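pipeline stage [seq->struct] | target=DUF4381 domain-containing protein | organism=Bowmanella dokdonensis | residues=164
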Amino acid sequence: MSPLEQLRDIHLPEAVDAWPPAYGWWLLALLILGLLFFSFIALKRRRRQRLATRQALEELEQIDYQRPDWPAQVNGLLKRLTISYLPRESSASLHDQAWLAFLARLLPKKRREDFIQGYRPLLASLYRPESAALDARASRELVRNWIRQALPVKTSRLEEDLHV
């Protein structure tokens, strides 16, 4: 008998099965699920935070600028809005220049001076019987921009001003 005849057939190993996956795939799946979960939570939280802003923008559009008390309505809207984002005692009792400075402090620094110059006449008209001299369209745009840029409140802006 020749040595070749004594050889046996080649035994192929079993096929590698796709299931169960390796540990790395399990970790990747858990990581993806965790990211999806936390993204969903963050999106939901952001949406809830922006609810007051969306409602304020809608209410701003519904104000009748033909009425003589529209500056008081706009100011009241801003007051309610700041109270909904910040503790009540931080803004509820403010008025006149302190209120104006508080509103400006919530904006980015480069936008503050323009806001102060634009809002000062509106604030002064709160105590006058007629507000015909005010430009309602410009005031509405100023307040709309304030709502979009200042909210939700970034506490770093407030802390930054307190430490300087």
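stage status: PASS
auto-comment: The radius of gyration is 31 Å. The chain has a mean pLDDT of 87.
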